[in-house]
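ERR on first pass: missing label on line 2. Operator R.T. fixed the label and resubmitted. Corrected input:
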Amino acid sequence: MSLDARSLDHSADRIPPKFDAAWSLGPSRPSPVANDGQGRVLSFDARHMIIDEADPARCSYVVLEGSVMISKMLPDGRRQIIELLGPGDVFGMTTNRVHESAAESLGPVRVAAYDAAALRADQDLQLMFAERMKSQICALHDHAMLLGRKTARERVSTFLIRLIPGRGGGGCTGPVGKDACGVTVSLTRQEIADYLGITLETVSRAFSQLKREGVLSYSRHDAVTVTNVCRLCRLTGAH
Amino acid sequence: MSLDARSLDHSADRIPPKFDAAWSLGPSRPSPVANDGQGRVLSFDARHMIIDEADPARCSYVVLEGSVMISKMLPDGRRQIIELLGPGDVFGMTTNRVHESAAESLGPVRVAAYDAAALRADQDLQLMFAERMKSQICALHDHAMLLGRKTARERVSTFLIRLIPGRGGGGCTGPVGKDACGVTVSLTRQEIADYLGITLETVSRAFSQLKREGVLSYSRHDAVTVTNVCRLCRLTGAH
DNA sequence: CGGCTAGTTGAAGACACTCAACGAGCGTGG
DNA sequence: CCACGCTCGTTGAGTGTCTTCAACTAGCCG
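pass 2 clean. output:
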């Protein structure tokens, strides 16, 4: 069994949006987004700030390849990672003059940037943005539930389930044969913590506990095997 | 000084979206949304379920008048209120066959319902939906920060500041003369708690503490005077 | 090998939760 | 009219989960 989720065949446009695990993948296939030349294509290395908080708002972006994380900071340094985005997802939209959240590449990434004029001119592009915003709003709703009401253990379980394409969601088919699955965790413990609204120690403890209980196994930090997906699913609080 | 925020002159389309306090108002002015007859206008009493979780997805909605709250439940009964919406805001969009969150009227409310075909046919409507989704995504980002990283006291302070139009946000002008303001709290303590991701007791304690410290004063539960808006603002964690 | 980063684990403490009692306000009905 | 029940809010006491602080380990690179 592969430890690398990227070997699984699923494209961003077929997965129900709120369980889209595209951002968990390593180097990813090009997104289905048509780029008719109006959008400037930009490439960034890993951990590069694409948008800083309070940057003047010039463009909206589409992720073409790779993963992007959206975050916000409080003046005293507390950080919240708001969204984890994969190919097809959009970011940088604002009704304000400035961006209200930062965007950073998780790995090497390619994005397309569209200024307001380009967007206004292309109706297909507008529709695509609208569709994506809908799915991302669903994901944000789910995440608000996680942040507001779930325990640390449930948060970490939910996080891990989201890494497994097609599982844990409404359209989950249930276990198919041996119910194990390998996933690549491309975030540090600190980043997972900032995403889940807990501390890195709590994340670490939750991982260790799940490992001790036989739900997970791993030797490398970033290559985790979920031994029993259904059991993990029952720990998310959603079922 | 009035205890009723509705007396203040501000329309939904001029307020920066993430600090839009339209949902804090009582009976509200009609929204600027053009209703060209394609959308069915629906009216509901207070505390009426407009959408149940897992309802088949038929329409997208625009709030015309009144306030709507969007929420999700876990199977064990834990609830999270995800969004509080006012005139101009949209809800019910989904890429799925079913709605993934519930919508309930806070007071008497009028909404316009558009099915997919109506939306596809009207480009202005699409644009309006897209613009609103942008602002609501910003609000969801802000709220994720609140839920993930703020203390109970900061959450309640943020909640109260959001009730005050034009204050607490980026475009905050600072105190103008005597820095007091009356607001109408049209949610129960339980609802505030479910919105802020804490318990009703914690909400109550936070209110009491702020009152004891002289930041707030109130005799009725739903009519609160913020005695010193700037001081409250400094308690939100955002400044 | 030393220094650095990332992760794990332990001990102690704080913040919010749970459970419970009590009080205020309101509508109903005797 | 007042008693009653009901809902909603407040407050207290005790508990628990998660945080904080700190020590320690593993892996990596010069």
